[in-house]
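Attaching the record inline, Q. Sequence:
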Amino acid sequence: MFSVTLFHHGIFILVPSVISTSTHLLTYRQKLRGVMDLFSPYTSHAQTALCAPVKDKYSLLMEDDKVRVGASSMQGWRNSMEDAHTIHLSLPNLPFHMAPEDGAMAAVFDGHSGCKTAQFAASHMLKWITSSDLFASGNIEAAIRSAFVRGDAVIHRSMPYEQSGCTGNCILLVQNHLYCSNVGDSRAVMCRGGVPFPLSEDHKPTLPKERERIKKAGCFVQNGRVNGVLSLSRALGDFSFKDQGLKPEEQAISPVPDVVHVTLTPQDEFVIIACDGVWEKLSNKKVINFVRDEIGEHGDLSLACERLMDFCLAPVAGSPGSDNMTVVIVQFKSIFLRKLESEFVCTHV
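Structure, as predicted:
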């Protein structure tokens, strides 16, 4: 099984036994809810901006019989890199005697207030999903939801005083079934027949269902942020916003993901997963068109990721495109889709 987990400018083959960390120029510890910390990346872009953006990119290209995957990350204007992502071209413990090569996974974790939660999630999400009885029995959606919730608890036990948090957008491929799980505002969009097919919804505090849960948990929404601080309403970590007396689905910042399940068709071209730094600059349609043009021009998925980030990078700090950026493109091979379609027809004759 070949896998890559990338964070802090390093590529780790398989799952590293030791997670690298670094000293941060800025730390964020919210002692009191609702108190604005000027050094939080969610409350003040200007305080965390460099004099010039770091445009160095860390890219990779992977391929097997079913998919081609390109990925790239860039620090940008922020003074540290807090994103992480992971890619696996096979999955262990697949149900119904499937081969490991029948599955794949790609995920992006956009960290805030530090990188540790994002790194931890990227290193362990595969195990959290595939090691459960739910997964082995074929209840994939329930296995994914359970993995996010259990993973959040593991993070808290492992790092009880850690104040960072992260989004999580995970794509799981099991034969011709695609599952997208999401907490936060990283986004996944599929290109189906040349048009965008959204796989996730950004979790924002201003959404009625999110706002209602936040208020019931004893928090408030101010200026589109939970307690005036966090601009997203679901995440892993962020334990200063979580009440250990509440259930995961009741938390102001909930770790429970939405899970979308779609059956792939021959019209499905690729899925792009990216941090909010991309989506705050471009619409779903513009991102899909950009990637399609790149694939048509040169076919290099990692280069397509790099060019997309360059295009979205803010000209000045503090404007849209100032955040860390990570982009993953999963392209379905046409022979793989045709094979799945023929197998589906044969089994239903």
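The radius of gyration is 19 Å. The domain at 3-13+46-202+257-347 is CATH 3.60.40.10 (Phosphatase 2c; domain 1).

More tomorrow.
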